[in-house]
Amino acid sequence: MKMNKKSVVAIAIVAAAVVASVVAVAVWKAQPKGMTVAVSTLPDSLNPVLEQNTSGLNADELVFDGLTNFEITEDSSSGRGVLYADLALAEYIEQDTSDKKTYTVTLRDVYWHDSTAEKPHVVTADDVAYSYQAYVLPENNSPKRDYILSFIEDVQAVDEKTVKILFKNPIPEFRAYPVLTFKIIPHFYKGQEMSVNLREGENERNFATSPVGTGPFKLASWEIGKWLTFSANGLYSSVKNVPQADSLVIKRTIDPIVRMNELRKGSINMILETNPMDRASVAKIDNVDINSYMPYAFYDVEINTSLFQSAEGRQAMAMALDKRNLIPGITDQRDGVVLNNGPFPSNLFEVSVPDYYKDEVPNLLPYNLEKAKFLAEKGGISGQNAILIYPDSMGDFGKQMAEGIVAQLSKIGLNVEARRTGDQVFNRMVNKEKSFELALVYREGFDNVYSSMGAYYRSGSAENVTGIADKELDSLFDEWEKTNVTKDWIDLTLKINKRVSELSPALYLCSLQKDVYSRGLSNILIATDNPFLSAEDWKFKD
Q1: Is the domain 297-512 a CATH 3.10.105.10 member?
Q2: If 121 and its partner were Cys, which of 112, 295, 318, 350 is the partner (CB 3.0–4.6 Å)?
Q3: CATH pick for 36-257+517-540 out of 3.40.190.10, 3.40.50.720, 3.40.50.300, 3.50.50.60
Q4: pTM confidence score
Q5: Nearest CA to 308 among 391, 366, 387, 399?
Q6: What is the pLDDT of residues 477-512, one digit of tens each?
Q7: CA 101, CA 97: separation in Å to the nearest integer?
């Protein structure tokens, strides 16, 4: 091939362009540096009002604060993390002693992430009032709407630094503080006032993928489908400690085998989604730490009461379950397993009011196979067929739990078939259509899930998937949610436990210890299903 000077130059230009494009692609694909956490699903957005994805709700903890934040401290006796709510954007919170429903909040001087020396942007009472209105606006369809509305009547800006919170009923501090952890967002974004409807405008939609918060980290980059990178907020000392790590990366890694291989190699530093059946083998891996915690979450089997109408039949199912031996090697452990004695875990009081009351919630439907057989005959479920569905996301662990339930219920003559179901289909059948017979569910939430228990059982509630309707139970939950006296709250909890046990709308199983695997990190303290609550304290080992 004969080439002249022009062709040589042209080829050189093309070659340079090709090299440049390769380099550009390589840079684009390179994993960002920083403390790296592997997850199977990335957030859909980082707007805490709208986000319904668990991964997004967890990541919101890095970017935003509430008037109060959930914090984690180490229990001196066990060495485990203990969850509590503490002041964050609020510098003071004062309860009106006359009505015990009104709380006055004085705000700290806290700066939004977009603040500069020339243009400081400080959190104001108007931001707090605006955030509340955004959460409760029906058009936003916030997943926190019903929870917030069940407690709060109104939020009012008194002046720039003062907020008045009006609760619907008298409420003690130990229940009020968790309610006030909902995240605060700015009512001005990029120089424009935000609409309360966060779905209607371009500026509002941009906020979801390029948010401005006050939290320990601020969003640095977002590679769709791959990772999110966060940089430390150097101004966070006004709320808590400035993060130990300069940057944090949340990386999408779907395959659990790939996640483990990357952890071994050190290309990731933490795995959040783990299988309790892997604990023994992971413990043998060098340089990998297991950080365990007991979540505010539980497994249970929801019963469609329109199909299983007999309370005796439902009680029979409950008493047929030998929970300790449901999955040998897992539920038979004495450590890391809390059995649910009805709608509440046995250790509810120890967790919620340890300084006042530590007795266990009683088990009114203990394992008793002979009595279960009698009630199964009386309730007409002996010889009946049923389908138990469980979501794909539970994986092999869900399969083993479902199979254990099937085997134990067969002993009272109930013929159950376990079916693994895609998560979207499962959600539609259970939560929307309520077109199931039996459903194995995992109730979770890093805020104390038991504080909103009434929503699961109130007559006509959207979250009441079992269809149970009982005036006595409705009345008990009304009192339970209004009480301002700890002793009365305990007494009502015991009454609710008794009435729910009589009705048996679900089969209450257990809460299981969960594990987070880490490599090369220290100061890892986790107490809930949101591991990022203490992320500002994490650091690389020396």
Answers
A1: yes
A2: 112
A3: 3.40.190.10
A4: 0.78
A5: 387
A6: 988 877 878 889 899 999 999 999 999 999 999 988
A7: 8
